[in-house]
Write a structure and sequence with these properties.
- This protein has 119 residues and is mainly alpha-helical.
- The chain has one domain (11-116): Orthogonal Bundle (Arc Repressor Mutant, subunit A).
- Helices cover 57% and strands 12% of the residues.
- The protein has a three-stranded antiparallel beta sheet with strand order 1-3-2.
- Strand 2 and strand 3 (77-82) form a beta hairpin.
- The N and C termini lie far apart (39 Å).
Length: 119
């Protein structure tokens, strides 16, 4: 696995490094209210591949945002939940969701208008 950056230019750089990417915010949003098993993530976010889900969860775990609990049973059971540090992201995610809901139509319209412009 490639080495992840450990030096940052500002606080926003740290934050985007932790939650950035296509899937991490969706994973964290789902974990805001409950503990989730690996296969449940596959149902909740059907577009994500198993490999990408594993990678994103591993990175969140390495950053101390998500806790992974493995139960010694057959078949194996693995659950994920937010850590105390991860829970500090909840207000940020809530604000991002609010902004998204409030501006979704404007953003969609802007993107349609750009798509109509000749190249």
């Amino acid at each position: 696995m490639p080495k992840r950056k450990t030096t940052f230019s500002c606080g926003a750089d740290v934050t985007s490094s932790v939650i950035g990417g296509k899937w991490k915010l969706q994973i964290l949003y789902k974990l805001m209210t409950k503990t989730i098993r690996f296969n449940e993530f596959r149902r909740l976010i059907p577009e994500i591949t198993q490999r990408m889900l594993t990678l994103q969860l591993r990175e969140l775990e390495e950053d101390g945002i998500v806790h992974r609990e493995v139960y010694a049973q057959i078949p194996p059971k693995v659950e994920y939940c937010l850590t105390e540090l991860g829970e500090t992201l909840i207000p940020l995610i809530e604000v991002m969701c609010t902004w998204g809901y409030e501006n979704e139509e404007t953003i969609a319209e802007n993107r349609k208008n750009i798509a109509k412009e000749p190249i």
